[in-house]
Amino acid sequence: MSDPFSVRVTVRGYETDVQGHLNQSVYLNYAEHARWSLLQAAGISQAALIGKGVGPVALETTIRYRRELLAGDEVDVSCVFEWSGGKTFRIRQTLTKADGTVAAEVTAVGGLLDLTERRMVANPQDVFRELTSNTGLFGL
Questions:
Q1: What is the C-alpha to C-alpha distance for residues 15 and 23, in angstroms, rounded to an integer?
Q2: DSSP-derived secondary structure for 72-139
Q3: Are 76 and 98 in contact (CB under 8 A)?
Q4: pLDDT tens digits for range 114-128
Q5: How many percent of the chain have pLDDT more than 90?
Q6: Which residues, 6+ apart, have CB-to-CB distance to 27 below 8 Å?
Q7: Are strands 5-10 and 88-97 parallel, antiparallel or unpaired?
Q8: Global pTM?
């Protein structure tokens, strides 16, 4: 199996709290940035999703903080899709410092919303298969 998709981010000073740690909400921004970067790497734009009549939705997100991140730290944010065969999928993400230390783990449950019907798409993996030639990025 190949390595999961990953994007590197540098923690900026204005993203930290009074203790100098990365603010809790910014972890979600980093995770979201990595997910959209994966879509971009797969050749899927927001316009392509809208053109298909769907939009990604977050249904649940859990963050497990393991080690602090400080201004200037470089962190790799990975994305691994897991498919259950239903309307939802899980994305497991790890934020790993440049020295290999795991700083946080993010687990998200998502799906694709039919923008006309306002209902979840039955098999979201099929939409991703149609929109990309690099199905490996999605674990398909």
A1: 6
A2: T-EEEEEEEEEE-SSSEEEEEEEEEETTS-EEEEEEEEEEEEETTTTEE-S-HHHHHHHH-S-GGGGT
A3: yes
A4: 999 999 999 999 999
A5: 94
A6: 63, 65, 95, 104, 106
A7: unpaired
A8: 0.93
